[in-house]
Amino acid sequence: MSSKVLILNQDYSAFNVCSVPKAFLLVYLNKAELIAQADDRFLHSISQTYFYPVVIRLHKYVHRPYKSVMMTRQNIFKRDLNTCQYCGAKDHLTLDHVLPKSRGGKSNWDNLVTACQRCNTQKGDLTPEESGMQLRQLPYKPSFLVFIRDFSGGHNDYWLPYLGAR
């Protein structure tokens, strides 16, 4: 069972992911309602037992003008499943510009991939084609829902009706 909770906005659209203690607090303070709970887990205090939240819904609509995934080092690693996109290694990871910065490459979702130090050094100031290295997958910008569903680290079957099937 995951220790992440899906937060839905008042209109049942996916809003965010949070920890179980934060979700419990939102429900306890009557800022959210419990939509789905784990069947086999509970939260216990000295004198009471509470449902273990899996999906909650906010009571008030929170306007989010632009749903987007922030481009950060950690989010690029998550998108690439913490794996070098050249050799598949999982250790000593760095970021690599597919089109090197020295040749006009930008620091954006479509040009950054996870690479191990060895592959990053081997590729150097070349494109993957010039260096004879092949990418396992092309870099892309994940949508907000795809990122929550696939890369938040807490996905479970209770979330599927709100995020869409894989």
Describe this structure in words.
The chain is α+β, with helices and mostly antiparallel strands. The chain has two domains: 4-66 and 144-163, no CATH class; 73-131, DNA Binding (I), subunit A. The chain is 23% helix and 27% strand. The protein has helices at 20-28, 73-79, 117-123, 128-131, 144-151, 160-163, and strands at 4-8, 14-19, 32-44, 49-58, 93-97, 112-116. The strands form two sheets. It has a four-stranded mixed sheet with strand order 2-1-4-3, with helices on one face. It has a two-stranded antiparallel sheet with strand order 5-6. A hairpin with a 5-residue loop joins strand 1 (4-8) and strand 2 (14-19). The protein starts with a strand and ends with a helix. The mean pLDDT is 91.
Compose a concise summary of this entry:
By secondary structure, this protein is of the alpha+beta class. It has 6 helices and 6 strands. A 4-stranded mixed sheet has the order 2-1-4-3, with helices on one face. The protein has a two-stranded antiparallel sheet with strand order 5-6.
